[in-house]
Amino acid sequence: MDLETHAASAPDAAAPAAETQAIGEDVAAIRDLILAKLKYSVGKSVTAASPHDWFVATALSVRDKVVESWLSSIESSKRTGRKRVYYLSLEFLIGRLLIDALTNMEMIDETRAALAELGVDLETLREVEDDAALGNGGLGRLAACFMESMATLSIAAYGYGIRYDHGLFRQRIKNGRQLEYPEDWLSFGNPWEFQRPEIVCPIGFGGHIDTETRPDGELRQVWHPGETVEALAYDTPIPGWRGAHINTLRLWSARAVDPLRLDQFNSGDHIGALMDRVRAESISKVLYPGDTTPAGQELRLRQEFFFASASLQDLVRRHISLYGDVRTLADKAAIQLNDTHPAIAIAELMHILVDLHDIPWDEAWAITQATFSYTNHTLLPEALETWPVPLMERLLPRHMQIIYLINALHLAKVSGEPDATGHRLAALSLIDESHGRRVRMGHLAFLGSHKVNGVSQLHSDLMKTTVFHDLESIAPGKITNKTNGITFRRWLKEANPALTSLLMEVVGDNLLDNAMVLEKVAALADDSSFQERYAAIRRANKMTLARLVQQRIGVKLNPDALFDVHIKRIHEYKRQVLNILEAVAIYEEIRAQPFRDWIPRVKIFAGKAAASYTTAKLIIQLANDVGKVINSDPALRGLLKVVFLPNYNVSLAERIIPAADLSEQISTAGMEASGTGNMKFALNGALTIGTLDGANVEIMEHVGSPNIFIFGLTADEVEAKRSQGINGQDAIARSPKLSEALESIASGVFSPDEPHRYRGLVDALTYHDFFLVTADFDAYYNAQRAVFRRWRDKPAWWRSAILNTAHMGWFSSDRTIAEYAEEIWNVPVTPPGRK
């Protein structure tokens, strides 16, 4: 079947003269607008302008176009009284916005032409823009995809988060070690945002509670905070596809009520005069400050309450101004909690309704439950936040009082059940008393929401039998599934424009309106000419990535090698160490058996370890140490390379993913909630090697088991294995390759300057292998050999790659958001398309 058969919807080769003239007029208008912005907003002449000046001028010119639709969208939502969605997330990993805005506003070609007339390259400006440091990994990127899809589906929505001054740290690698530095993404300003000085919310901490008697004889609790911080709003418009609807990302910045104690300053205490300001502004300084100290724990709780309280004050104010009665909040607002970070909003809304608006408790609780829904992102009990009761009582005394009452009423309701034993009541309680009294924020989010969703079918099923087993038993049906998705506008069109053009030849230019049309591409999976064009695009992307790798870390890559990519947050359960062990095993084999017909392979790692996560940081050092030895060994003749790219972010992912041949999704089964990187890789044609974990299960169902490399223990087998013990000695004894690799690492082959550097890591794998790296090593090694065999058969490889792309339409975040809208939020959607 040839390509032309499927190209019926492709545009004519020559545009009509009138259309050509209109495009020329658009280019001229954009050029003039950019010049005006450069002169009057940036204050530079053409001859004096730097690339950053041109970037700002271009961004402001695009922003003007976005604002026109933005204001129209806001007015339309007000006029029609549509229900709004409020998405509360501690992270929004939005990445660079210039190309994103140009793409969704359908201005990219005209803007590129306009800049070319001015002697400026759009791709250069793309590189000038800093990534917004507002997130860490999948959680924040998911929030960004959801914001774009909500706008694309014309859902009236606000995203609420924190405007971090520095966000997550900038990662540098020195002598193989991760070093953390402040991310300076705001050092040159942010042309996309609008400061709203008129929108300031007071946020209270500490203080005391008075009890007053209302005229009706009921008691009323009055909280008198001992400290107040102001939350100042900054708005960023988020355009949907084709610019039909624009939503708002509102981020909060913390500031002191009195920025300077003038009396102290004038008395000579210049530093003390600024202490209140420093304490207040620390709330929005960095994402995920270290929490290994009591001060760090307090700052994290202050952050979470700060943005949750500001967001609720803001949306309740908006609701009352539009509809008058706070009692109708659930009819006009749906609040989605993205993980447990904003779960304190449950208690805060009760405080607002009961204390500030005199709503009776039972009615307020009904409103709260009807308004909130909660997305769970983890099955790790330690990752479901808990806060020490003494900290909560000191920092948020009224909210702790509310939580106690929620808990008392909740336990009173279930205590009459036949199986209401002390153990069961303890498991259902909001207060965990097993290791000091702590508030279970996951329990609070569960009880205070009308729906709780997981982010893949396996994850949602496991929630019912693990972390929320007891709660699900008293609220059957509350847990539902919403498998994650990705926005194809960013991860296909922007990240891989050449592949997008090829696909549009087959499916038509409505690909980005309806991702399901990708299914048409499956018919060409065996077409040799299509395979050649598809493979040529991949090779060009690999050459681009190879240049970037050489520029950043000085390692030269062979673009014809298999690019085996493992990019994600560094964590033991994501098992980067399993990948490294396989690299060491292959290294030893190549040296011992150089005569074998080895295929060239490059292992590419990237990701950040939490600053206080010692083991994860050691894994980064191991990857760098292994790479240093392997890459410099002449005996390998370039057959194996191992590289670690520092400072992983959205923009780096956009370069790596289109160039990947193999996608590493090898978490311990039952521990990855979903993953979205797996979807981005498969969409761009990388084959997945992975466990049956998270959304890998659904990816296999869609692309077909022959087109994915699944290995290792299942979630049930992991649980059974752990029940028998997690000592890795037996697995190591059965696997000579694993034993040799571990001994090489432990003995200092890759750390001659410090031979015992990794002895502790190897001992943990040997005697306390909780993440079952050793148990899965042989299966992983064998799966990699299956990868090699497929790679040698290039028609078979490209057939599988094309089928991966063809069957990924279901994983669009448009589909995910449409499901949220219908089944959780009860809001209408308008499918994207040319209006």
Automatic annotation (TrEMBL):
The EC number(s) this enzyme carries = 2.4.1.1
Could you name the domain of life of the organism this protein comes from?
Answer: Bacteria
Q: Which GO terms describe its biological process?
A: glycogen catabolic process
Molecular function GO labels:
glycogen phosphorylase activity; pyridoxal phosphate binding
Q: Name one GO cellular component term.
A: cytoplasm
Pfam families xref list = Phosphorylase
Under the heading InterPro entries, the entry gives: Glycg_phsphrylas, Glyco_trans_35, Pyridoxal_P_attach_site
Kindly list the positions at which N6-(pyridoxal phosphate)lysine occurs in this protein.
K680
Q: Which reaction does it catalyse?
A: [(1->4)-alpha-D-glucosyl](n) + phosphate = [(1->4)-alpha-D-glucosyl](n-1) + alpha-D-glucose 1-phosphate
Per its UniProt record, the required cofactor names are: pyridoxal 5'-phosphate
Instruction: Keywords in alphabetical order, please.
Output: Allosteric enzyme, Carbohydrate metabolism, Glycosyltransferase, Pyridoxal phosphate, Transferase
Q: Which family does it belong to?
A: Belongs to the glycogen phosphorylase family.
What role does this protein play?
Phosphorylase is an important allosteric enzyme in carbohydrate metabolism. Enzymes from different sources differ in their regulatory mechanisms and in their natural substrates. However, all known phosphorylases share catalytic and structural properties.
Protein known as: Alpha-1,4 glucan phosphorylase
